[in-house]
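Example record for the data management plan.
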Amino acid sequence: MRTYIEFEKPIAELEAKVAELRSISADGANVSIGDEIGRLEQKAKQLLADTYAKLNPWQKTLVARHADRPHCLDYINGLIDGFTTLAGDRYFAEDAAIVGGLGTFRGRGVMVVGQEKGHDTESRIKHNFGMARPEGYRKSVRLMEMAERFGLSVITLVDTAGAYPGVGAEERGQAEAIARSIDCCLSLGVPMVTVVIGEGGSGGALAIATANRILMLEHAIYSVASPEAAATILWRDKSKAIDAATSMRITAQDLIDLRVIDEIIPEPVGGAHRDKSETIQRAGAAIQRAFETLDPLSPEELRAQRAERFMQMGRGI
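Corresponding structural encoding:
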C-alpha cells in the first residue's frame, strides 16, 4: 500500500478512485468504465507531474524522508556485484548505521560506505535510523584506508539526519571521529564519489561526503543541520522548521547554484519512492560518469582536486 505525504492528498484521492473503479471492473460489473478509468489516470499523472515540478524546500524535505524511498542497501543490491560486508571499527564495536564493504561496480573494484536508515521498525532500530555513532565513522576510516591500500575506488551513499547526539556517542569522541573521517576523505589517493540519496544532515553527512564528485538526487536535501534543529537554534521554536528549510537553501537546485554539488540526478515523476529501480539505475549511470572524469587523474591530482573544490566552495557567490 502506497504511503502519501500530506501535500499529495489530491493525488491520493484520484488514485484511490482509479483503484476503486478497477476493482469494480475486475468484479465483472455490467458497466463500461474503461474510459473513466483512463481519464482519471491521466488526470492523476498530470497532477503528480505538476505537483512535483513546483515543490518547495519543506516539501522536498518530506520527500527526502519518505519511508518508501530507496535506502543505502537498495542501491548496493541494485548496483554492486559480489558485495561483501565488512564490520567493526577495531576499537569499540560495530555500528549498523553505517554499512560498508567490498564489491564490483560495472567492472570496477570499489569500497562502498553508506548510511542505512532501514525500512521497517525492526530495521530502523537496528540501523539507528541512519544516525551513526563514533564507531561508525571510525569504521568508515578503516574501510576508506583499506580502499586506498588496494587501489579501490570509493563510493559513499549519504542518507542521515545527522550523527547520533547521544551522551555515549559524545563520551566516545563523536566530533573527533567525524573530523578524522573528513580528514581521511581528503587524503585519499583514489577516486571518491558521493551520492546524497535522501537526507544529508550536518557533519554526520560531511564525514563521508568530502569527495571528488558530489551527486545529489533531485528531491534530496543537504544542509548544515536539519530544518527542525536550525529552527530550534535560531528561533527556539521547532515549529518554524518550514521557515528554516526555506531560508537554508538545502535543495539540490540551490546547492548546484552554490557549487556545493556537481550534478543533480533526476528522479522519476513523483519521487524516488515511486520507482526505486529506475532511480537506482539513474544513480548508477551518474556514478559511472563521475568516475570516468576522475580516472585520468593521479593520486596527487585527486587529493589536490578534492581539497581545492572545498576551499573554493562559496567563493565569488
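Summary line stored alongside the record: The chain has two domains: 6-54, 61-312.
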